[in-house]
Amino acid sequence: MTFEDTLPYLVAVGRCVFAVVFVMQILPLLIWAERKGAAYIQDRPGPNRAHVFGIRAAGLVHTLNDVVKLIMKEDIVPSHVEKRYWAAAPVIAMSVALCTWVVVPFGDNFMGYQLKVSDIDGGVLFVLAATSIGVYGVMLAGWASNNKFSLLGGLRASAQMVSYELSMGLSAVVVFLMAGSVSLSTIAEMQAGPIWNWVVFTPMGLLAFVLFWTAAFAETNRTPFDLPEGEAELVGGYHTEYSSLRFALFFMAEYANMIVASSVTATLFFGGYNVPFVTPAMLREHADWVLMAAAGAAPLFLVFAVLAWKRQSRPFYQALPAGDARLKEPKVFVGVWVGAALAHLAIGAAGAMGVASKLSLNFATFGFLENTAIFGPDLVTAVVQVTVLAAKVLFGCWFFIWVRWTVPRFRYDQLMDLGWKRMLPLALANVLAAGIWVAFFPNGLLATLGLK
Amino acid sequence: MSLPAARKMSSTESVYLVEVVKGLVMTMTHIVKNLFDQDRFRTVEYPDVRKTMTDRYRGAHRLLLRPDGKIKCVACMCCPTICPAKCITIIAGEDPNDPAEKFPVEFDIDMLRCIFCGFCVEACPKDAIRMDTRIYEINAYTRQAMIHNKSYMVNLMDGIKPPAEEFYRLNPDSAPAGFTPDEPSATGSP
To answer: Is the ipTM reported for this complex over the cut 0.85?
Structure first.
């Protein structure tokens, strides 16, 4: 069996691993951002106490503590639950959240292989279908917990997700009409180039985005639509009876759903992996320039990070008693960062001298992958595209958090009123308007007016 | 009684989006301000920093001594009488060297019952009890240790302020009945 024979399998495994790792790596960051963001909005310093040998990492260690706590905690199985369904519910919630990500492209292609886990023809339809299955996790948890509050939480969740799915699907239809395809790859390709190619900068696209994004809040059960776990009236809602890792699965599923919703929104409305004004072809052509720009930007970012972190931590260190382990932290961090910057400088100098000029490294000289003479530019392009998508996704997730600490929770009748009486008619009208628009300006407004 | 009618929302308010954006701008203003000026935080880094209480703060009780070293309290029973929580127990005794005055043989305050109203301080005719220590960390592992007795309250302001538990461990003679210093138990009942 040659290397070329095993390659498709390796690629398949690599794609799956990347899809899971991408979500699972952002998770702890989001939990941290949620806490720190909430604290800063409320004029508090937020998590800053837990430390490993004096390293607090601005509260990131608290996330580590969470993991340890949730793993070590006793897994309580209440005697009154429907054991089988009760145990299945968190697994469904989490696995569906991870599965939904498979149709999102995180780059155009890398040496002939598409950068997405699965090229399902359904595309966005798969996302909508998978989120519908996600309702089962919440519903089963509520029903199998066999108590009134959990049941009410599960009921609310399913009713709300079913109601808002309509507006969500109809808003996605607007994008389908404009792209002429349901495949997220095609939709992302359509938005390459100048920033006004993004769907969100068309009138129908903007309204569709607002509706889609609002529905996404309801789909992920986030504030202002987090009635399923409304702690004031329902204890903990559908996850009242869960503890330990089973609760952790629900907790992670919520954040994974945020990441999925953000990445789908970014791909549908904000150009996905595309850099504004830069097409993938331009990226490939000028890969060496991209590399040098990144080499310049990285030390700047490091310096900014050190300064921001030092300012952030100042009052805390003034408060510590002498001899506290945490007083060592500034020295350690500055040391690590200066080391990283120096190492980066050395690598950058070496790269600028030799490697950048030989980006078109031909792997055929090593005896394999004869048909891929352009490994370097493809790698640079892939890294840039994944980074751009990650930046868009992170901003989307931050928006979820930002809204959570700004907008108060809706009442249940207000929620249904908004979903059925306001958003659904708007979404329907929007689909009609988009249909007319596409019929009259099949190549876009600018092309029809002769401006492009 | 009928509730007042809800205020009619204006047309921009009923769209929600404008108001949501206003709120988002407001919270972001807080984040940006807090990123650049950490002194805006009101949080006290508690175990490392302790709040300085005002002079009026009613903390743990202490008993005062006369210049000759004897306790000021004359066991007049004013404080246990006025105490609304009934947490003060005084056993009066007679000093053969000073037959004019009574004195408290035992003076216990059950801090688990005390509501820190300060009536005992106001009722005292001899200025023998005060709550000006500003001590607010009143805690122990056992219920016995939560009963502050005479020697603890007399020594409360000497140098460091040990928790009652530590004080009773150092002075086993003055510990309340039933106090077992070596077996701290949160669930122990008196």
So the answer is: no
